[in-house]
UniProtKB/TrEMBL annotation:
It comes from Kribbella hippodromi. It catalyses: UDP-alpha-D-glucose = UDP-alpha-D-galactose. The keyword Methyltransferase does not apply. Its EC number is 5.1.3.2. Keywords: Carbohydrate metabolism, Isomerase, NAD. This is UDP-glucose 4-epimerase.
């Protein structure tokens, strides 16, 4: 049993690689290092440096593989509005290339990294898998198309698949791996605090208990374990749901994140306050009951523990 992890040199991918190895499952990584880091790939893990558009390299990486965890792609929703063609090329065309190579090599199992971006700005208090997708960016649209590709390829071939819709992935399960995204809240706060600067809260007039937006934050190590559970189920021939939300069902406000950062770091700061950013939803929280039922999914970290692991792994934290 060997699984290929596309994007395995990225923040989430590197955690998935470690979770597979901890579970006794061999892995191979393919990543073009456009956003990943070679040092995130553990020693001894075969690594193919290539983009998924390179069909020959993908077929090489699939040698001896029984399944794929597909995480590679362009993930910046805001930037995708400015670079739609690049987004579709990396997230849709590249996935077609991967599925073609899988069919040629007879690889029939795939776990797909989808996104909460497929929901856009939901009106429900708690999002479920039955919530109608309404993506609001090329990124979210590309992830929804990825789910459609799996559905249609499964109808035409013996493809076994599931898609995991992520919400806000945070923290670290290994001090050597950190989230370097310039757009995510936790690394933004860590970076500002290490520079002696004060983080900002954008929007304090949301219809939430403390006036700041509430989002669903899940720890990356919990997320990684869900991939292993999904892979094992597909390998065993279990029919999984086409999509699963990996969400806590509760949510955490931005102000609660700031309070956790103050407690964890010991840095006494009062965050600045600025107007809401356009399109920033007041509340996005997901029900994770289906994933709990089929993948033994659950959040095992408190908000303080989430921030503490992110802070410990941050490269300039002291």
């Amino acid at each position: 049993m060997t699984w290929l992890v596309t994007g395995g040199a990225g923040y989430i991918g590197a955690h998935v690689v470690r979770a597979f190895r901890d579970g006794g499952i061999d892995v191979v990584v393919i990543d073009d290092l456009s956003s990943g880091k070679a040092e995130f790939v553990p020693d001894g893990v075969p690594f193919v440096r290539a983009n998924l558009l390179d069909g020959a390299a993908v077929r090489q990486a699939l040698d001896g593989v029984t399944g794929v965890v597909h995480l590679a792609g362009f993930k910046y929703a805001g930037v995708s509005v400015e670079r739609p063609l690049h987004t579709y090329t990396q997230n849709v065309t590249a996935m077609v290339s991967l599925l073609e190579a899988m069919a040629e090599k007879g690889v029939r199992n795939i776990v797909f990294s989808s996104s909460a971006g497929v929901y856009g700005t939901p009106t429900e208090e708690v999002v479920t898998e039955a919530t109608r997708p309404a993506p609001e960016s090329p990124y979210g649209e590309s992830k929804l198309i990825g789910e459609w590709l799996l559905r249609d390829q499964a109808a035409a071939t013996e493809l076994h698949h599931t898609a995991l819709r992520y919400f806000n992935v945070v923290g670290s399960g290994d001090p050597a791996v950190y989230d370097a995204s310039p757009y995510n809240l936790f690394p933004i706060v860590c970076n500002l605090l290490t520079q002696g600067k004060v983080p900002q809260i954008y929007g304090t007039d949301h219809p939430t208990p403390d006036g700041t937006s509430v989002k669903d934050y899940v720890h990356v190590a919990d997320l990684a374990r869900a991939h292993v559970a999904a892979a094992r189920a597909l390998e065993a021939g279990t029919v999984l749901e086409p999509v699963y939300n990996l969400g806590s069902g509760t949510g955490t406000s931005v102000r609660e994140i700031m309070d956790a950062a103050r407690r964890v770091t010991g840095i006494d700061f009062t965050p600045g306050e600025a107007p809401r950013r356009p399109g920033d939803p007041s509340r996005v929280v997901a029900n994770g009951d289906l994933a709990a039922r089929d993948l033994d999914w659950k959040n095992t970290y408190t908000v303080d523990e989430m921030f503490a692991t992110a802070w410990e792994a941050w490269p300039t934290a002291s």
